[in-house]
Design brief:
By secondary structure, the chain is mainly alpha-helical. The protein has one domain (18-160). It has helices at residues 8-23, 54-72, 85-105, 121-143, 154-160, and strands at 29-33, 42-46, 115-119. Strands 2-1-3 form a 3-stranded antiparallel sheet.
Length: 189
């Protein structure tokens, strides 16, 4: 394995992505039932893969896993498609926003029935990991020659993904008149 094939920003992104993936299996919320007069209480945990919703955690865990594969496999000599650094930055930035929103929105509790729901370690760890991955994505963007002003220029962003930037070579001319396509092959049988 040749880690020199992974940039410093890519190493940070991949490491933080691994932490996010692990955090997705840890408890994100804990619901506690106090019981009647404090007798017969119980608690249950929920992680990103449970009933919290695909958009809040498990989607980002899967995207981190895919990104880690695309970053790390070249170090093992495996040829994979190369994504622009801005894609890694976007995934980590959106993961940070959505996990923060999950913390701020929270889960419903019912104190009138003795049920409380509180955020747990996994959610906090996922937020920190997503923010660290966003930093790693930004470092990858800077290492690839990107500047902050490039994020404002849609043509430069399209260019990073291989899109048309408005320049380049024109398409080839149409075929000369009078030419027709070849006939179809004869039917088999």
């Amino acid at each position: 394995m040749d880690l020199s094939k992974i940039s410093k920003g890519g190493q940070i992104w991949a490491g933080a992505g691994i932490v996010f993936f692990i955090a997705s299996f840890l408890p994100w919320y804990t619901a506690e039932y106090k019981g009647v007069s404090g007798i017969g209480g119980a608690s249950v945990d929920a992680n990103a893969w449970g009933d919290l919703g695909f958009l809040w955690g498990s989607l980002w865990a899967l995207l981190f896993l895919a990104g880690i594969a695309l970053l790390v496999l070249p170090a093992f000599g495996v040829a994979v498609p190369k994504l622009p650094a801005v894609a890694y930055m976007a995934v980590a930035g959106l993961a940070t926003v959505f996990t923060l929103l999950k913390l701020l929105i929270g889960e419903d509790d019912a104190p009138e029935f003795g049920i409380t729901v509180d955020a747990s370690l996994g959610l906090y760890l996922a937020i920190v990991a997503a923010a660290a991955a966003a930093f790693g994505g930004f470092m990858m963007f800077k290492e690839s020659g990107g500047e902050l002003n490039d994020l404002k220029d849609m043509n430069k962003l399209k260019g990073q993904f291989g899109g048309n930037t408005g320049g380049g070579t024109p398409p080839p001319p149409p075929p000369p008149p009078g030419m027709s396509p070849p006939p179809p092959p004869p039917p088999m049988g």
